[in-house]
Give the backbone structure.
Amino acid sequence: MPRISICERHDMKKIAVFAASLLLLGGCAGPENTLVRLAAHDSFVMSDELIDQFESETGYELEIIRLGDTGSLTNQLILTKNAPVADAFFGIDNTFYGRADEEGIFESAPSAIDYSDVCFNYDIAWFDDAGITPPMAWRELTDEEYRGLTVVTNPNFSSPGLAFLATTHGALGNSEDVDAFWAELRDNDVKVAGSWEDAYFSDFTRYGGSFPIVLSYCSSPSAEVEDDGSPGTRALLEEGFRQTEYAGVLAGSDNPDGASALVQFMLGEQFQESVPEAMYVYPAVDGTDIPESWAEFATPAQSTVGDDLDIDSNREQWLADWSEVFAD
């Protein structure tokens, strides 16, 4: 057997240590591109604790880009699809999904993250003080008794607004009756806000506004419980519209792996359990725990309409008809 010199033995040891270091670094290395950009609507909430958890578990750094209401979010992602402003998105819902899909902005099929039922809420104390009986259903909002009391959102930009426009088509059945209803609502001094945030937090009487009836969600009353445990608002639970929000990877993103990891995190237990109290919607993953108070204050709609509507084929015409009603 040939003898190995001290120098050769020393060189071999250095090579072995270097090789082991490479293996160790390869096993522990984080993602090459560590930045994940998430485009979301303005109502998206992810706590600092959950952001820290995502970043520590995956090695990615999260940047959240807010692009307005759901309609504005969808429009911006379509306009920038050739040079995406983000890697992942959250908040495109079933009313805008078809348009986004047609424009090819999804890398793969998005995942449902949460759902809620679009309906009207009213301020209980305001109606008690005014001595007016609150409405039982949205069809009553054209009655003289409710003149100037309702704020809705523009369906061209707002997903609740588009959901309610779809609701009227699903419930009333034909465009003539739908246009007539909206004209009566207009003539009854309804206000049209640009976004859900404006309608709820600026125009609604609970937050200093002048309108005690607001287009929102059946789960919204869970955020308005008084200190004594009594409800501050109540939802009109008949003929709501089931709205589902999605998250997914954007086609052409700089970091599809990071975007996919973020979507999977949103489907995980911790994020799903945060959804009710953070965004006042129901988690989409079956079996997720929800707050006990939701059984009393955040019940889903007792009936929904519009589930079988072809929103994608009719959206542009519906919006044009709606805009014509409110053109004056």
